[in-house]
Structures are given as structure tokens and as C-alpha cells.
């Protein structure tokens, strides 16, 4: 018997399925809504894609060398991806996360062996970014920081994979694409490539409607440190949505279709709901489900509604 191929967990990232969503069929029976199930990546989120690409490019260029520590700030999902890749590919990982990050994501990062530094929870992801910069500046030779908010390989990962998969999986029939804004890499990279395939595709970005929201991982751009990779000109529209409605739609998806997703998936569903309310009745809508709901159980997302 031939030995099995040397396949690592990092080789399993990408090629996630599109799931048909039925929540809007009463109002719009001719509208095909498809959710890209990024929670089926091995690290459990869409962030596996950019984390892998940023690490690979850093290793190729020598920026992430032997003995160096990968250091970055994260609200959780990219940190889980970094930690998984560090364990799989053999480099130490140190992550700066807000102290109020969900318990499930905190435990996942620790399970993979990452070191955590906790930042002021009142300062959110912006506080983690600033503390991360301080740590790196104090010992620049020890650390390599991918700097996910400003690294072009973040959005390039989606340009090269996520968008191509969506185009092929819909056989080029996608008409509308929606995704939330965190680092903005998922939306910017995917939308740019889809527009190259067909400029008529409507690309819609989503963000919380105010600074004090409960949608972990998403940014309210007017009040946040704006990522360097964010390009608002890519979007045909930008919708700002409420936390409560996003939670409600995530719960409906779980209870009516058996798909357990996180907060940002709920906001994407709210975006589709808005389009339907405006009169959208046909087409092929693709939205990103960035992660699964298991890592939000302790945060009350799936508590009594």
C-alpha cells in the first residue's frame, strides 16, 4: 500500500459550498438566495483564507523566519486561523484580543497553543490594534505582524479564491453579492473579482448602523480605525443595519433551516431582507456566512428571543 499523501489541515481551506436559503421565498419565490458556508473551513471561518495567504507570502519572502513569532490583533476568527496554522506549520503565535472576546474563540486560540494578550474591552478591536503595534515596536526583530487590516494579501486571498468559487458555483449567474465589513478583505477582494467577471453584478457591503453595536467582528467605519485595505468605491451600495434584526434573522436561519451561523451572517440576511422589501423579486443573490454560531453560544446570540 502506498503511503497517504502529506496532506495538512491548511490544504483543506476553501472550496466551501453554497447553501440555498429559503427564508425569503414567500415574498420572492423567484429569487435564488445562496449562502457561502465559510464556517466549513477547518478553522471554522472565512478568516482561514486570508490567514493562510498572509502566512504563505510571509514565509516565501522571509518575513516570517525561523524562530520569529507571528503577532497580530484580532477580534477572534483570524486569531483562531493564525493559531491553527501556527500549530500546523510550526511557528509560535501571539495574539492581541479585546478582553471581552467570546469565550469559545478565546478557548479555541488557546487550544491551538497561541499566547493571548488581552486589551481594554471598552476600546474594542481598535484598542487591540494599538496595543499590538506597541508590542511589536518594543521588539521588532522578535515579531512578524501580518497586520491583517492593512495587508493586501488579505483581500487578494478572496480575489483569487472566494470570488472564483462563487462564479463557478453559480455558473456565472450571480447577480448580487453581499458581505459585511470587518477588515473589509472579504468584501473588497470578492467584489473586485466578481466585477471583472461581470460588471453588472451588484456588490453590496454591510456594516452596523452605529458604533455601539453587538455585531462582533464587524466595523462601523465612520467611527473606527479604517483598514488600509478598505476601498469604499468597490461597493455599489453600503447598507447599515441594526443588531437586533441581525440576531433575529440568524435565529430564524437556525430554527427554520438548521444552519447555525454568527452575528455577521445575520446582518447579511438582513441585507437580503432589505432588498426584498425594496421590491427585489428575481436574480441570484450570494451572501457570505463568515462563521458558525457555536462560537457565540456563551454570548447569548441563541438565547431566548
Write up what this structure looks like:
By secondary structure, the protein is an alpha/beta fold. The protein has 2 domains: 9-42 and 152-299, Rossmann fold (3-Layer(aba) Sandwich), CATH 3.40.50; 48-144, Rossmann fold, CATH 3.40.50.1100. Helices cover 37% and strands 18% of the residues. The chain has a 6-stranded mixed β-sheet. Strand 3 (69-73), helix 2 (77-89) and strand 4 (93-98) form a beta-alpha-beta unit. Helix 1 crosses helix 2 (77-89) and helix 2 packs parallel to helix 3. The protein starts with 17 loop residues before the first strand and ends in a 16-residue tail after the last strand. 50% of the residues are buried. The mean pLDDT is 95.
- Radius of gyration based on Cα positions: 19 Å
Shape by Cα distribution: globular
Report, as a whole number of angstroms, the end-to-end distance. 55 Å
What is the CATH C level class of the largest domain, in words?
Alpha Beta
Number of helix segments?
8
**Strand percent estimate:** 15-25%
Strand tally is 10
**How many structural domains in the coordinates?**
2
Percent of residues in helices comes to 25-40%
Poorly predicted runs of 5 or more residues: none
Q: Within the CATH hierarchy, at the fold level, what is the topology of the largest domain? A: Rossmann fold
Amino acid at each position: 500500500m502506498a503511503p497517504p499523501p502529506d496532506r495538512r489541515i491548511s490544504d483543506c481551506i476553501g472550496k466551501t459550498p453554497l447553501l440555498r436559503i429559503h427564508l425569503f421565498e414567500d415574498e420572492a419565490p423567484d429569487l435564488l438566495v445562496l449562502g457561502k458556508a465559510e464556517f466549513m473551513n477547518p478553522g471554522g471561518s472565512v478568516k482561514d483564507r486570508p490567514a493562510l495567504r498572509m502566512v504563505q507570502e510571509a514565509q516565501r519572502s522571509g518575513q516570517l523566519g525561523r524562530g520569529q513569532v507571528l503577532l497580530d490583533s484580532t477580534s477572534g476568527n483570524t486569531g483562531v486561523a493564525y493559531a491553527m496554522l501556527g500549530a500546523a506549520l510550526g511557528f509560535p503565535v501571539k495574539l492581541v484580543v479585546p478582553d471581552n472576546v467570546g469565550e469559545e474563540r478565546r478557548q479555541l486560540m488557546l487550544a491551538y497553543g497561541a499566547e493571548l494578550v488581552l486589551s481594554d474591552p471598552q476600546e474594542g478591536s481598535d484598542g487591540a490594534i494599538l496595543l499590538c503595534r506597541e508590542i511589536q515596536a518594543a521588539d521588532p526583530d522578535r515579531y512578524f505582524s501580518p497586520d491583517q487590516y492593512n495587508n493586501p494579501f488579505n483581500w487578494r486571498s478572496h480575489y483569487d479564491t472566494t470570488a472564483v468559487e462563487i462564479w463557478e458555483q453559480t455558473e456565472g449567474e450571480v447577480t448580487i453579492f453581499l458581505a459585511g465589513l470587518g477588515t473589509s478583505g472579504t468584501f473588497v477582494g470578492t467584489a473586485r473579482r466578481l466585477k471583472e467577471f461581470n460588471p453588472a453584478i451588484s456588490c453590496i457591503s454591510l456594516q452596523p448602523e452605529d458604533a455601539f453595536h453587538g455585531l462582533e467582528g464587524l466595523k462601523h467605519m465612520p467611527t473606527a480605525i479604517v483598514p488600509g485595505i478598505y476601498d469604499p468605491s468597490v461597493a455599489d451600495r453600503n447598507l447599515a443595519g441594526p443588531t437586533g434584526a441581525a440576531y433575529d434573522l440568524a435565529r430564524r436561519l437556525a430554527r427554520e433551516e438548521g444552519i447555525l451561523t454568527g452575528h455577521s451572517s445575520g446582518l447579511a440576511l438582513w441585507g437580503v431582507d432589505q432588498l426584498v422589501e425594496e421590491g427585489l423579486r428575481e436574480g441570484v443573490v450570494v451572501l457570505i456566512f463568515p462563521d458558525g454560531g457555536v462560537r457565540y453560544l456563551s454570548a447569548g446570540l441563541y438565547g431566548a428571543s
